[in-house]
Amino acid sequence: MRLFSQAQYRFIEKRRGAYFVSGTVIAMGIATMFLNVASLGSWLNYGVDFLGGSLIQVRFEQQVTAGELRDALGGSEAPPITQFGSENEFVIRAPLSEDASITEVAEQIESDVTANLPNSGVEVVRTELVGAKVGGELQTKALLAVLLSFLLTLVYIAVRFEFRFGLAAVIATAHDILITLGFLAAFRTEISLPTVAAILTILGYSLNDTIVVFDRVRENMKAKGGRKRDPIELVNASINETLPRTVLTSGTTLAVLTALLVLGGAVIRDFTIVLILGVVIGTYSSIFVASPALIEIQNRWGVADPSRKKKERPRPATV
């Protein structure tokens, strides 16, 4: 049994409604970022990795899990905790307030752990200060990583397909990033290095889904009679033909990510939420943003038609 084997949905004709939805969501996200500047002092809720703070390494004499330590430090409000070294050693990344030194933060953490995990034998092994300068460098490098991915995407698809395909893919990818950042700003999700990794993963997923559709568009263009087909009809047919693959891939990916969200715990919660959001947005954009963008680019700028100069040459395909 093949899902959507006879699908004939008119996706491209719905593009204006998709433009309105996407534009509204992006505008709301940008407005939320401006509100965050007024309330938080920054566009997004950057974590210790970007703003600087303290790294506190603790060791336990008794068996203690990361979940137990997180509960002892406030549960969902606890700072990021990662296992380091042996099973009973952890690194806590805690922000620093203006009126507290790193020593005071370490002492407070030790006090909270002792009170909530008695007889655990907690010991502060190391304390380090991460300066804001390092955080600023990480912000710059994260931005450069995203911009470089845009450039490489444009070059890769322009070489494999045509420049207009690459431009449409970059538009769809930028759309995905803007909506994702808007949601992160609206819910004030802490931006950490794993969050940046999730955003870069979204770029790859969205691009892969878009290339699948574009590859079918190219195949249909080269098929017999494909050059004479209406561009909108050709793109619609290409999306419908790849729809089973799109739905199954997105569905199975979301199933795994949902399991991670439910069973993975607080450590990877934000990372998983960003990935789930990215899969949904990436699937939507490959159908309602990338493909319509390809049509719009052709309608506005088109390509030269050598058949007008030399009648013996076949007319190039347009989409």
Please characterize this protein's 3D structure.
With 319 residues, this protein is of the alpha+beta class. The protein folds into two domains: 12-38 and 135-303, Multidrug efflux transporter AcrB transmembrane domain (Multidrug efflux transporter AcrB transmembrane fold, Up-down Bundle), CATH 1.20.1640; 53-130, 2-Layer Sandwich (Alpha-Beta Plaits). Helices cover 62% and strands 9% of the residues. The protein has nine helices and six strands. The chain has helices spanning 15-39, 48-51, 66-72, 102-116, 132-160, 163-186, 193-222, 231-263, 269-300; strands at residues 45-46, 53-60, 81-83, 89-94, 122-130, 190-191. A four-stranded antiparallel beta sheet has the order 3-4-2-5. It has a two-stranded parallel ribbon with strand order 1-6. Strand 3 (81-83) and strand 4 form a beta hairpin. Helix 5 (132-160) runs parallel beside helix 7, helix 6 runs antiparallel to helix 7 (193-222) and helix 7 runs parallel beside helix 9 (269-300). The longest helix is centred in the C-terminal third of the chain and has 33 residues, at 231-263. The protein is elongated. The two termini are 31 Å apart. Residues 304-313 have low confidence and may be disordered.
